[in-house]
Amino acid sequence: MTRPSGRSPDQLRELRITRQYTIHAEGSVLVEFGNTKVLCTASVEEKVPGFMKGKGEGWVTAEYGMLPRATHTRGDREAARGKQSGRTQEIQRLIGRSLRAVTNLKALGERQITLDCDVLQADGGTRCASITGACVALHDAVNSLVAAGKLKVSPLQDFVAAVSVGIVDGQPVLDLDYDEDSSCDTDMNVVITGSGGIVEIQGTAEGTPFTRAELDALVDLASKGIAEIVAAQKSALAA
Amino acid sequence: MTRPSGRSPDQLRELRITRQYTIHAEGSVLVEFGNTKVLCTASVEEKVPGFMKGKGEGWVTAEYGMLPRATHTRGDREAARGKQSGRTQEIQRLIGRSLRAVTNLKALGERQITLDCDVLQADGGTRCASITGACVALHDAVNSLVAAGKLKVSPLQDFVAAVSVGIVDGQPVLDLDYDEDSSCDTDMNVVITGSGGIVEIQGTAEGTPFTRAELDALVDLASKGIAEIVAAQKSALAA
Amino acid sequence: MTRPSGRSPDQLRELRITRQYTIHAEGSVLVEFGNTKVLCTASVEEKVPGFMKGKGEGWVTAEYGMLPRATHTRGDREAARGKQSGRTQEIQRLIGRSLRAVTNLKALGERQITLDCDVLQADGGTRCASITGACVALHDAVNSLVAAGKLKVSPLQDFVAAVSVGIVDGQPVLDLDYDEDSSCDTDMNVVITGSGGIVEIQGTAEGTPFTRAELDALVDLASKGIAEIVAAQKSALAA
Amino acid sequence: MTRPSGRSPDQLRELRITRQYTIHAEGSVLVEFGNTKVLCTASVEEKVPGFMKGKGEGWVTAEYGMLPRATHTRGDREAARGKQSGRTQEIQRLIGRSLRAVTNLKALGERQITLDCDVLQADGGTRCASITGACVALHDAVNSLVAAGKLKVSPLQDFVAAVSVGIVDGQPVLDLDYDEDSSCDTDMNVVITGSGGIVEIQGTAEGTPFTRAELDALVDLASKGIAEIVAAQKSALAA
Amino acid sequence: MTRPSGRSPDQLRELRITRQYTIHAEGSVLVEFGNTKVLCTASVEEKVPGFMKGKGEGWVTAEYGMLPRATHTRGDREAARGKQSGRTQEIQRLIGRSLRAVTNLKALGERQITLDCDVLQADGGTRCASITGACVALHDAVNSLVAAGKLKVSPLQDFVAAVSVGIVDGQPVLDLDYDEDSSCDTDMNVVITGSGGIVEIQGTAEGTPFTRAELDALVDLASKGIAEIVAAQKSALAA
Amino acid sequence: MTRPSGRSPDQLRELRITRQYTIHAEGSVLVEFGNTKVLCTASVEEKVPGFMKGKGEGWVTAEYGMLPRATHTRGDREAARGKQSGRTQEIQRLIGRSLRAVTNLKALGERQITLDCDVLQADGGTRCASITGACVALHDAVNSLVAAGKLKVSPLQDFVAAVSVGIVDGQPVLDLDYDEDSSCDTDMNVVITGSGGIVEIQGTAEGTPFTRAELDALVDLASKGIAEIVAAQKSALAA
């Protein structure tokens, strides 16, 4: 089997992580998985949402959006339609949960960090790219709090990244682009920490259900990919 | 370890499936997993939504709701608030995908079946109960089309059911009730067909990430539980 | 004239009132007028809405909903459409007013009781069934406050119930089912207390206006019916 | 008892009906019941709403609004809040039903007439004033269709008007102004045709329920008042 | 060139300003530019919006609406559609800014004045009429505060009025009515104070762009017209 | 006077126009006025909106958005809030009108081009940058239609660009950045074509009204600036 992109089954797309992409946010990262480009900003606010008040803890949350022409054909602008789609809400809940899994909310103190993940260009895997870029932006925002003396140590306990895997024509492949994503039988998004703990696993059979053996192969592939992605996150932050 | 309910780790709650619970719908099932009670109705309409028009195929979709006082404390009525929560949309998309995985949409013809899953009483696992009950209601609705001569054979290729599994105090357990659900570290919903194919797997670490070994144990437990649930579905339909 | 159901003109449908139908609410009643089935729950909250704050009084309010397939053909889910219809709002305002008419709000203290009336199955007369069932659920909720020592005496001054009456083919009839409701000329909903006081009267001529004599006959019929319904409420509470 | 306005119990406020109040609408009436002023316009459109298509009949409907400062203190603008209140919807449904009760929809042909009733100044009884003024605007609109040769005869079978009655300090009174309306025990709106047929009766006990004898007295009072109002409508149309 | 109305190019329509048009508002003005009729009310509230709290200043804001049948053909009711159009929001922002330009917000104290401008009948120039009438209503409201001893001196520093100008068939004309407005190439709304200072200028080329010379001619024309309008405002307030 | 940026009063910020910034859209331009960065995409659809159907003409429209953290402090996401602000709607209407002013809609044929202007980073002048960038994206989209043989000649009759001017500390200055914009007395946005025709002029006095002489100076300044901007647009398209 040859992938449309010429990649081998276990090969990631070219991954680029650009920090300080915009100037106002406490963390601002452009993450690119091949042609998928997502701008992830981290905004610190010295207050927490209503349901967290008085607990002495912080909160990390996310919002997700896609520019109308990030895709092949123009999609509706959610602000104009007057509501976010179910898909958008599902994705932003996933991003938030993934980042909270590596954050010590008590150590963050009574402040909120909002990760805005806006897709400038889409070619599959936007939610995984969002988690990956948002993690780096979150590190930058938290480090700025430490540098400013507002925090003694970083409340971030680990890195976290995500990748999609799927079965295309019977073959498990890593990091699906749009062409593969639209034609695959099974699509799985996996979120794993730097130390290898699984945070989220979301697999869906689009047509034929998948077997236990396929599940195992997909999780193996995702683990391998995420190890490479976390290395890239660390290297970007060290730059 | 003792579970609050006294169940063994791999024991389902008492499962009851009552067909023809209401009189108007083509399929109407009250499904009970212990104290969780969901009314699942299947409604047949001789038309398809806009995006399916002219394809010569049918569509199966789902809507989910919870009565305001299905829970310990009263929740907002979504109709009064003017929008469905992200959680509601996530659940109804999951139910729809699960049922379409066992339906031959071409064989259904240009008609839509809507599964309404309304939670009358909640005690954990409402989305899994919904999928389980909706599958039976869908069978009833499709059988009524066959009986009426509108379909020659049933477009349903299999059964499908769901169950939640989780790690509570380090122990993998099957079919979490509300008490366990609120205290567990890892929560996973698994959707599997009658022939054992995996349709959906959605696992989330609420606190500590989970290991590969724990993932394996949870999937084993879910597979065992779903085999029992599918047996109950078949027995209910045979009654 | 024969009624489609074979009932005599002044005969109610079979009335069933089941208390403690669900487990979480302070009052939970399934009320059935023939095939019309409404689940009425009463939820007590130790706070009042903004416009009642600081008055030293309580509040009783209601919300009404209908499951999408409670009816012959599936109706839109109001939560999905994003707003409640004018009909829904009219009904829930009527239920709230009717219950407040028998409640001493001062004696209730600064707390709110919300009556949720959700129609599981509809066959005409759902608003009247809602008032009737909600009254019993309200009694249960208030009695639980008395039992818990939060109230010394019940702030409920009376019972209240409702019934529809109408003119079908020139004949005044009691407690219309769906078939009669859709074909009748004049439709009237009457809300009366246990001691016979009129709380609400809402009569509408669908086609030909009605005469003063017909108005009198309809109110007579409603009074007779409500006396029987209140007896059933009292008997259910005594059980 | 003396009424705040000095009127006798069965005396209407000064009633003024001004036709052709604005220039664009097919019917345009300013109706004044004392200080209550409502602008009622009738707009003819050569199409019917979706649910009436293909029936060979017309439709008459109404919309109701209140300018934010029509009242003592400024109310929210419903367009700014983004939704119409339950009260607004209840009123516009009532106006529509009342006018359809005197219209032969078949004779109207496949066209819609919309009555917009906008309260410029409120002092109680705005829904009754709306029905009264809208009836005259509807006559003007229909007469313009007859004059234009689009209709051979008027599809209006009668006049229709409305008035409020209530029990204030134990005394039944006619045509309540705002002061009486806010303090009365029982409030009733009655809609009656020119030939004396009852179209709508909506009575509510705000505090103590009302007796059968009080109901009778109120309907008598309303009948008397409406006879005078219909005379004023006819006289305005003859001018 | 002859204008459809027979006016000379620099001639305003007949301008009428009627104060105390309704009874409840602190300022209530019906302003008429020919057939354009707008009811402008000023409502005083002893509180400011959230973003102005604690600044020791007041706020002046505006809302704008058009009755559905103010126009040749019936328009949607914004309250029924559930949102205000972009045009409505643009206009009410313009009215608010124009009035704040002549108000000393500090001298107003911590209170808000809301100007509601509701178009009863439209024939072009409704936003200019709104500004013109709202200025008079604002003067009345502020004078009532002074009369009541709540303010020592009026915080209004000047008058402000608005007029539309445009190029019709190559000719600059003043105060366009609907016919001219729909056919003109360039349309400009100008807001000028009593002392001649420009507050707002909004010019739009509908077809061919306009030249600098045309811009100059239009501003000249507007200045002349506004001087006459301000004289009328002063004369109305002196009456 | 020294400007905060060190620019001379009539000096533009550094202007960069990058074409083909993203890959899917028919035109995709990143426009930068100093630190203000707007992504402008042009999307061609072979259909027109309802109100343009059957006229044999095309339509050009625009939508505008700002990423939540494009600004110094995070703003609400309009999609999450469920509606676009009045400011957003005002801006997108302005962009659309400006582009239609240089487009021959008849020559475009029955197709729609939507310009999405999304602000990635804001430092004042985002609406002017949007118009400037959108014009280039529109040229690219139209040229692609010509290249594909769908249009014989370009329906674009000219270039169009916009710039803000204002009076800061009594001095007219060109192309305000955020610091100047927040402190200026008068703010004006001017839209001018390549051949010098004025398309839009929108001036607002934030505090003191401005004089006729100031208006003249501002228009002079804007004309000079736009000539430079149009030169940059042409040079970008020639590249």
From TrEMBL, chains A, B, C, D, E, F:
It is an enzyme of class 2 (transferase). It catalyses: tRNA(n+1) + phosphate = tRNA(n) + a ribonucleoside 5'-diphosphate. PROSITE patterns: RIBONUCLEASE_PH (PS01277). Its EC number is 2.7.7.56. Gene3D superfamilies: GHMP Kinase, N-terminal domain. Residues 11-141, 158-225 form the Exoribonuclease phosphorolytic domain. One of its GO terms (molecular function) is 3'-5'-RNA exonuclease activity. Phosphate binds at R87, G125, T126, R127. Pfam families: RNase_PH (PF01138), RNase_PH_C (PF03725). One of its GO terms (biological process) is rRNA catabolic process. It comes from the Bacteria. Keywords: Nucleotidyltransferase, RNA-binding, rRNA processing, Transferase, tRNA processing, tRNA-binding. NCBIfam families: RNasePH. Belongs to the RNase PH family. PANTHER family: EXOSOME COMPLEX COMPONENT, EXOSOME COMPLEX COMPONENT RRP41. This is Ribonuclease PH.
